[in-house]
Amino acid sequence: MELIEKNDSRRIDFVDEFLPGGKLYGFRKIIDKAKADNFPLELCFRGNSGNMAVIYYNNHRFFILQKSKGYFTLSIIFNHAKYTFGWEKLQDQLINELGFINKDGYMICKGVDLQDDEFILKVYEIMKLIFIDYFDKNKQTNEFRRLKNNRMKPVYIEKIRQQELMRNLNNIDNGYFVYNLEFQQAHKNKEEKEKDKSNNKPDMLAVKFSDRKPEKLIFIEVKSTRKSCGGKSGFDKHRDCMIEYINQKKKLSVRKKEACGIINDYAKLQLRGLVKDYVLSESQFVNLDVEILFIFTDEAILFYNKHIDECKSKERITYALYDEKQTKLPIM
Q1: Could you give the CA distance from residue 193 to residue 263 in angstroms, rounded to a whole number?
Q2: Do residues 86 and 126 make contact, with C-beta atoms less than 8 angstroms apart?
C-alpha cells in the first residue's frame, strides 16, 4: 500500500516574506550580494521537513530559516568553523554581539530582527569566511587534526558538483530546470519510513522543458567518486529505489504539483534566472512523463565506462557525463 504524509509538498508557506517589505527580504538581497562576491548561494524549500527554507553553499547548509507559530528562527551549523584559525573569536562574536545561542552543534538566533540588513550582512561575512576555509583543502587547523586523528580534510567534490549542476541547470527553453536540492520524502513515522522500499534521497528534482513547455519530471542522482558508486548508497541502491518511486502514482502527483508551485515561487522571487511574470499552470504538469537521470562526474565517469551495459539495462533511465568546463549536459 502506498502511503504519503498529508503535508508532503516541499513548498513553504512564507515565500512572500522574501519579497520587498517582507521579514526575510534581507536574505533575498544577500543572495544577490553573494553572486556579486563570486560566492554563489542557492535558496531551496523544505516544506515537508519543518516548513523551512535553506540557503546552500556547495550543497552545505549556510543559512536555515524556519517558521514556527508565526515567528522566524535563523540557524547556522557552526561545526564548519573548526577549519578556521581563530574560530573561537567568531563564535564569541555570534553569541555576544549578534545574539546567537549554541545548541547541539547549531548556532540559533531567536528574537532578533531579521529585517536588519546590517545584522544579516555581519552573519553572512562570518559564515563566508568559515565556508571558504572549510572548502580550502590546504587549510588544516590543529583542531581538525586532533578531531580527525591527523587525517586529511575531505574535499567534498560530490557536494560541490551537485550545487554546481543545480546552478547551471536552469533552462526553461529546451533543457533541465532543477527546482529542489537534497529531496527527502516525508513519512508519518519511523516505522513507515523503514518499510518504504522507495525511500530514497535523490540529489535533485528537476523538470525537463521542450519549447518552453514542461515535458518530464526528472529525478537526478549525481555520482562523482568511485566510492559513492558502490555500497549501501551506491548506484544500484539509488537506481532500484528510484524505479520503485516513479511507479507510485500518489507520490508523483504530489511531486508534479509541487514542481509547478516551486518554479512559480522562484519566478516570483526572480531567482534561478526566472522573471517575476513567468507563471506555469498545474494543468501543464498533470500528465508529465517521469524519468531518472544519473549524472557521472570526475572519477565516477570511470565507473560508468566500466559498467555501461549494466547502466543501460533499465528503461526510463538516462545518463550524462559532466565536468565543470561544460555548458551543456550531454545525455547518453
Answers
A1: 28
A2: no
Report d(CA 305, CA 111) in Å as an integer.
Answer: 54
- Count of C-beta atoms within a 10 Å radius of residue 201: 12
What is the reported pTM? 0.90
Average confidence (pLDDT) over 294-299: 92
Domain ranges of the chain: 15-57+59-147, 157-322
Would you say 16 and 262 are in contact if contact means Cβ atoms under 8 Å apart?
Answer: no
Angle at 237 between CA 232 and CA 239, to 5 degrees: 155
Q: How far apart are CA 207 and CA 218, in angstroms?
A: 6
Q: Of 311, 315, 195, 185, nearest to 243 (Cα)? A: 315
Distance CA 260, CA 97 (A): 41
pLDDT tens readout for residues 76-88: 998 888 778 788 8
d(CA 275, CA 69): 31
327 φ/ψ angles, rounded to the nearest 5 degrees? -105, -15
Looking at domain 15-57+59-147, its CATH class is alpha beta
Q: What is the 3-state secondary structure (H, E, C) of 205-263?
A: EEEEEECCEEEEEEEEEEECCCHHHCCCCCHHHHHHHHHHHCCCHHHHHHHHHHHHHHH
